Amino acid sequence: MAQEDLRLANMGDPVNTPADEFAPSVTQDGKTLVFSSKRNGGRYPDIFVTHKSDQGWSEPEPIVDINSRYSDESPSISGDGKMLFFSSDREGSLEYRAAGSIRVSFDLYMSYNENGSWTRPIKVPGDINTIHHERSPSFDEKTRTLFFSRWAFGDFNQAEIWKSEMTAEGFTTPEKLPPQINAGYQEAGFTPARDRSGYYFASRRPGGLGGWDLYYTEYKDGEFGEPLNLGDRINSKENDIYLTLFQDQLFFCSDREGGAGNYDIYAIDYPEEQQQDLRFVVRNARTGDAVQSRVRLDLNAEQSLARITDEHGRFAIAVPADTSAVGDGFTVRIQQRGFLPFERTFSEGDLNGLSADEIPLELSPIEKDASFTLHAIQFDYNSATIRSESYPVLDELVDYLSSNPDVKLEIIGHTDLHGEYDYNMRLSRERAQAVFDYLTARELNRNRFQVSGAGFTRPLIDRKGSPYDEQNRRTEFRVLE
Q1: Which 8-state DSSP code applies to residue 394?
Q2: pLDDT tens-place string over residues 463-475
Q3: 3-270 CATH, one of 3.40.30.10, 3.90.870.10, 2.60.40.1120, 2.120.10.30
Q4: Which residues of 66-99 are buried (b: 16+ CB within 10 A; e: fewer)?
Q5: ∠ CA(81), CA(83), CA(88), 5° rounding?
Q6: pLDDT band at 9 (very low <50, low <70, confident <90, very high)
Q7: pTM summary value
Q8: Half-sphere exposure of 153 (CA within 13 A, CB side)
Q9: 401: how many CB neighbours lie within 10 A of its CB?
């Protein structure tokens, strides 16, 4: 899932400067880009426009017909370039008194391009603007729907996304989007995908890579699907927000390292055929009932994501359609109260064989003599020293055992088929003892565990060499009671 496979690039000079460049929006032909910035050294942001030619992007210019002496920001331009929505706290915006002061809220405004000039901005009519902040507008031309974020003055943590339809009679009364979108984590920047039936937005919800991450939600039959994190090909450990799409190219802003300033605008080639959505459902292996749970996805040795299933046990991720891009694949881990820990690795070959249907992940209820294996517990070569990359897996096991205090386990070490019997029996028990020491050092009762080593007497696969050695080297846990 490497970013370089998709040619991510900072747009650089003349678009980006040491100031913030924020909230890009592009026309359908990809030749006009608008954004907000304080690049001219002003106190407040203005809206700028740049045009693309064979020589590249032009020097951005402020849209003087629209900008005021106050904040004008987060523009959204229509595909044909004839209509522009934006947010501003200019004179005429709604006011209210709080703590002895007059507060001016951000309201939504709109303007039309007539004969190359923008009309004087007007407030978006209807019930959209309130004494709260209305910001981050975007307009879906296919459904004639205006989306925006709203939050109370000074309480950005409660930002939520709303929508209003544009009809012949005006804009309808705004409605808040459902909980799978508005999860309570500063959702903002809801933009149409244009050439597919769905939307992009930013959220700080758990399981992301950094601050704001970018997500995609499918819209089908009037319902929004479970949001998909766009992954490390686009998202960074910093903030990524305001994604806009032109054909097979995405534009968004980010304050990641290496930029010209704080927030910069980035472009990325993103052909739709390069990704596929994998949808999973977590179930009780005995009853088939859905299990709502927290899921961890290990993408590689250094990066993992978290997901929380919906009430139906569903979650989804986006992976490259070219499955060779996922390298050794990824591992799904689930540790849910009342069930055995679950671990399953999906290799490149597994991904090639997956269908568009939901992939079941079945959790086994805790019962005596049931067992589970954690292959991710790794040791130094011919040693019982636990590798540091295994610590997160063991820490999750500590959390699991803390939330299931009645579970007692036998820790069983296993080796591959190489070497002498006595040596492997001793090594496997020493490795099991190392796991015991790690768990009990974190205040788990020693009486909850037994330790044993099986050497190479119980291989999963009775063969030597890769990948069989890796599968046979493992730490097994058997439920004692």
Answers
A1: H
A2: 998 878 888 889 9
A3: 2.120.10.30
A4: bbbebbbbbbbbbbebebbbbbbbbeebbeeeee
A5: 120
A6: confident
A7: 0.62
A8: 17
A9: 22
